[in-house]
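Anyone opening a protein record will find just a pair of labelled lines. With that in mind, the following record should read easily:
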Amino acid sequence: MVLAGLGIGGPFFIRQVHQERLDDIERLQNERETLPPIPGLTDFKGVIHAHTHISHDSTGTPDDIIRAARETGLRFLMTTDHNSKRIFTEGLHGDYGDLLIIRGAEIIQASQSILAIHLKEYIEEWGAGPKPIWQIVNEIKSQGGLAFAAHSSRFKEWGTEGIDGMEFYDMADSALALKWKIPWVAAQAIASFQDHPDEVYLSMLSRPDDSLNRWDRLTKKRKCVGIAGNDAHQRFAILGRQLDPYQLVFRFVQTHILAPACEETALLKALMAGHTYASFGLLADATGFQFTASDPTTRGIMGDSIPYSPNLVLTARMPNKGMIQLYHNGIMAGLKTARHMEYQVKERGVYRIEVSLPINGTLYPWIISNPIYVI
């Protein structure tokens, strides 16, 4: 059926699908409501895991990545070039107008990747031989950096002390997992990538089931901050057409951090605390989403540990109506299609939210929150 779509009428059908998706996305934009912020906190939208020309497999220049971040409304960007001394001589770091860039590196050992966020100095990957993951993590932490397991399907050493969190979504991993869709995506790209690149990318969007299951198992044992990894490279071009421009990859998925200010210390502290969620921004702008826990004496947000009480209520609010799923210890405990959900906590455990949106008759993942830990 997909290959037949390349024949007579095929491109027309694909363009019709794109138009229907566009209509639904425009409807979401028109229906969006602005939510009052949580007192003392601002929702800052950004990207984690991005490569520049310093990486051997990226062609993106500093001007390219800064321009794309500004055009997509990012407030922060955490770069993670493949480990190199050049990161500390040529890499971007600091304030660039309204954009804060925090320097980092992707360090790979034995096919396992660690995102080292906020590095101050180069970490040598070899000593007498390749350094073990635990030693690399220790060196990251000794510099005051954060360590996240990337490409979680290939990561094995989850018991390593000092790992702050993991990618529960990585764009490269997601694309590789959908190899069976390549003919359909290729047909769409031929028919309409130039006019509708966003909608072509939506064809690759699906819930990261395996990574979320792995994350749920980890959070039942210890705190583990979840992030979305863009894995942006801006390296694939065909016939002069850039298929992975930074602008499109940055719009596809973002990590939001709730912090008192968009400055380095505040953002890193909030990220380490898990005051964060991910959103697939091609569908709709999720800025303003909230997931809180409260009783008459206590209030907490994503990432916080809250004492159990019979009066504890979880509340989720979002700017668009969607299908809200509440997970408790990895098992769905609540389901509602709305902009707002409340849940009376019945037992201790790990609670997180997912929200999906209907586009052209298909539900797409939109928001994935970090957990609230009820202890």
Q: What stands out?
A: The radius of gyration is 21 Å.
